[in-house]
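Structure tokens please, single chain.
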Amino acid sequence: MPSYVVEAYVSSLEQRKLDDAAERARVAAVALAAEGRWIRFVRSTFLPTDEVGFLVFEADSAALVGELTERAAIDFERIIEAVE
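Here you go.
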């Protein structure tokens, strides 16, 4: 299954903002999966020195991850396909 990373600006003083976004992503992924769509929230990572946060998903497509970010009201810079 393809992996995708959502990259978001997160001030070094606002790590909680990423934690909240990760929880909303988790809830939205469960809701989409209940609709028969294949998506799974994997993890979040915060790089405080770079002020960037990453949300990692396994999903059928980048478009589905984009739909999740809309449902979860997540502000982000880009969605990138990742190879693990």
